[in-house]
Specification:
With 192 residues, the protein is α/β, with parallel strands linked by helices. The protein is 43% helix and 18% strand. Strands 4-3-2-1-5-6-7-8 form an eight-stranded mixed beta sheet, with helices on both faces. Helix 5 links the parallel strand 5 and strand 6. Helix 1 runs parallel beside helix 2.
Length: 192
């Protein structure tokens, strides 16, 4: 069984679109027998992606630090909830359990998880594909920043293209699980 780690916000964001896309992604993973790995919380987009996968009969593994679990926001209806001692251990465990990674809209935590995975790939610690679901242009500013980093000579183009960007959820999931390393299909994906 394949598995995808999903990085996303513990907040719902404004309106309902981020919760809806998180739930849709969870449902898609569950229906397609793809294990969801995520941060283990029951709130915000994190809770929505987990609940979507569970509602579709999917396997969901949450990884949560003890200090967050102590705040009673851990999701206790998961297939498995792994409690760890720190945020660093959480990221490592989620990485170990997944075959690929997708970032949905989120805040600092989502950025931290995404960039840690990208940095590890840049350092040849892994070659797991990493995708960014650009919901309603949420990540356009980040993509502009990456272009600026490359133009400034602080980011190599080969490293910038490690991130596969799409606005189509199902195609992105299938693409990441079918490819061992990032590649570009210009019909649905963009390379920053």
């Amino acid at each position: 069984m394949k598995s995808i780690v999903v990085f996303c916000g513990s907040s719902p964001g404004k309106g309902t679109k981020y919760l809806e896309i998180a739930s849709e992604l969870g449902q898609f993973l569950g229906k397609n027998n793809i294990t969801l790995i995520y941060g283990g919380a029951t709130v915000g987009c994190m809770g929505a992606v987990a609940n979507g996968a569970l509602a579709a009969g999917g396997k969901v593994i949450g990884v949560i630090p003890q200090f967050i679990q102590d705040h009673e926001i851990a999701h206790h209806g998961l297939t498995e909830l792994i409690t760890v001692d720190s945020m660093h251990t959480r990221k490592l465990k989620m990485y170990e359990l997944c075959d690929a990674a997708i970032a949905l809209p989120g805040g600092f935590g989502t950025m931290d998880e995404l960039f840690e995975m990208l940095t590890w790939q840049q350092l040849d610690l892994h070659q797991k594909p990493i995708g960014l679901l650009n919901v309603d242009g949420y990540y356009n500013g980040l993509l502009e920043l990456l272009n600026s980093m490359e133009k400034s000579g602080l980011l190599r183009k080969t490293d910038k293209t490690r991130l596969t960007v799409s606005h189509e959820m199902e195609s992105l999931v299938n693409y990441l699980l079918e490819n061992d390393s990032p590649k570009n299909d210009p019909t649905i994906f963009s390379k920053v």
